[in-house]
Amino acid sequence: MTRSEFERIAPQLRAQMLQTALDFFGRQDDAEDVTQDAMLQLWRYCEQIDGRRNVTGLAVRVAKNCCVSHHRRQRTEAGYEALKHSADEDYSPQQLLEADEAQRMIDEVLARLKPRERELFEMRRIEGLSTKQIAEQTGIAERSVSAMVSAARKKVFTELIKRMKQ
Amino acid sequence: MTDKEIQQLTDRYLEGLTSPDEELLLARELQRPDISEEWQAVRLMLGELALGEAEYDAMMDRRKPSVHRRLAPRRRWWWVAAAACIVALLSLHTIYNKKEQAAERPVVAQQQTVHRDTLVKIEEKVPTPTVAEKKPVVVKPSPRPTPTTATGDLAACIARLEAEMANIDDSVSAAHLEKLIAADARLQQLVYRIIGKQTEQALNELQKDSTANYINF
Asked: How many C-beta atoms surround the C-beta of residue B96 within 10 A?
């Protein structure tokens, strides 16, 4: 998706993200902050996907994700005993390293998938589309979508387990 | 979810058979600590967006019961209000019935204060004077009010009827009273029962006079 394509649909997406955040926080100021972060994240995702895709579902997912992250930060700042460090210290340094390692690992594994397999895998993983929606957007039969998604998942799973055991 | 159910869902996920909602459920379940490497791999495959969305939905779900708790007292309040309305209606109904009974009683009592000649005049207009003559007490047993209530009601009604009877010489008032008595068989029976012998005596005297003379009177 190009920047101009994104900017054209941005107001509509922003409204949906703001509503998601308002439902969660019930306060306009928090919701506005989260929506701002969510728009930036959404643009990063949209850069990687086809401009003809309907990204409404993705926008809501990203907004929900940002709501949870913002909520964690607030709890941390409020000085809760269990989370009394910084915003990025919901996890211990070791856990953060492990998380980074895990992310790097899955990125490498996904890079080994065939382009079509990766596209279908990511449509499900990132955009949260159903098999039917993927079939509609790609023109592939539903049964074939399921089979290709399954094949991609099994490849990724096997490779991840192999790397974890090393 | 049990471990077995999570494993079944994991298997379906790998087969590409899960729906987006099932995958969110799986993401929710796999956020628990100390899970196997296989489940860690699946959690990684589900991705941060699914995990965040699952957490968002879980938090929103946890808030729902508190909304119900806030609404519940309101619902109970409506029931209390409805119950109060029913009680109020029943009370009004009871009061209305008492007033109706009170409206019957005073006429009975009033007969005791009516002059004999007036009483005779009234009794003559009652539809079944001969029945009363033969059977002074032909009253079916009726529920008696409690003594205190009856006394209070009776006194009030007597006072009211006395005021009305002050104009008994007025033909319109007399006709109205006669109409009241004639319209209610139960009232007639009560009149006969209460005034008892006085009525009998009045009727006996009435028999001595000719009907024509009485009408002229």
From this structure: 10
Fold category of A91-166 in CATH: Arc Repressor Mutant, subunit A (1.10.10)
Instruction: Identify the sign of the CA torsion B56, B62, B68, B71.
Output: negative
User: What is the rounded distance in angstroms from the CA atom of residue A149 to the CA atom of residue A124?
Assistant: 8
**Chain B residues within 8 angstroms (CB to CB) of chain A:** 13-17, 19-20, 23, 37-38, 40-42, 44-50, 52-53, 55-57, 59-60
Q: Please work out, in degrees rounded to the nearest 5, the angle formed at the alpha carbon of residue B55 by the alpha carbons of B53 and B57.
A: 70
Contact A72, A143 (CB under 8 A): no
State the smallest CA–CA distance between residue A35 and chain B in angstroms: 15
- CA-nearest of B134, B139, B137, B138 to B207 is B134
CA distance to A23, B57, B60, per residue, from A26 (Å) = 6, 15, 12
pTM: 0.55
Report whether B194 contacts B112 (CB < 8 A): yes
Tell me the one-letter amino acid at B46.
L
| Eight-state DSSP code of residue B146 | P
End residue of a domain, out of B30, B58, B82:
B82
Same domain, B18 and B75: yes
Residues 6 or more apart whose Cβ sits within 8 Å of residue B186: B104, B142
Interchain pair A24, B41: CB under 8 A: no
pLDDT-derived band at B115 (thresholds 50, 70, 90) equals: low
> Which residues from chain B sit within 8 angstroms of residue A153, using beta carbons?
13-14, 16, 45
pLDDT at A89: 47
Identify the residue whose tokens are 């296989």.
B38
Q: Tokens 């009045």 label which residue?
A: B202
Closest CA relative to residue B28, chosen from B61, B74, B64, B77: B61
User: Predicted confidence band at A100 (pLDDT cuts at 50, 70, 90)?
Assistant: confident
What is the CB-side half-sphere exposure of residue A12 using CA atoms within 13 A? 10
Domains in chain B, number? 2
